[in-house]
Specification:
about 150 residues; mainly alpha; Protocatechuate 4,5-dioxygenase, Chain A; 2 domains; 10 helices; flat
């Protein structure tokens, strides 16, 4: 079944982990959580493709895991914090994974984050850009300022 379109699907480089993605990625996320146990990490590293058969994964999800395509795992329902367990199993830091996912070196990624992160310009939802700043109700603090 095709994923329903949402107004936040147009945020560049972002896969919002919503309820639909959570259901879609259940197998990926349970696989990743299994890596918290040393015996499971050893079994996975001994025969990755065979180990993945324990989980209800689509062929696309299996391929993304075997290729370590983290962006594709997120697109297919993986949760960034769960997929980081796969990276840790491979001996990689979260910074390494984030750099890989953004197509930059670890040094460039770290420098970008230390200088305030990526610019929001060009990285916002196009559908939601007209909705920013338009609140239906006023907060207590703004009501008290009048």
């Amino acid at each position: 079944m095709a994923r329903a379109q949402h107004d936040y699907d147009d945020i560049p480089g972002t896969f919002v982990f919503d309820a639909e993605r959570s259901r879609q990625g259940y197998g990926i996320n349970m696989f990743c959580m299994s890596l918290m146990k040393e015996a499971n990490r050893k079994a996975f590293k001994a025969n990755e493709a065979e180990y993945l058969k324990r989980f209800n994964l689509t062929p696309a999800q299996t391929e993304a895991i075997l290729k370590r395509d983290y962006n594709r795992m997120l697109e297919l329902g993986g949760n960034i914090y769960f997929t980081a367990k796969l990276g840790a199993t491979d001996g990689h830091s979260f910074q390494h994974l984030a750099a890989l996912m953004t197509g930059s070196s670890q040094q460039d990624y770290a420098a970008m984050m230390l200088s305030g992160g990526r610019s929001v310009e060009g990285n916002r939802s196009k559908a939601g850009k007209d909705k920013r700043g338009k609140s239906k109700s006023k907060s207590k603090s703004s009501a008290n300022r009048k």
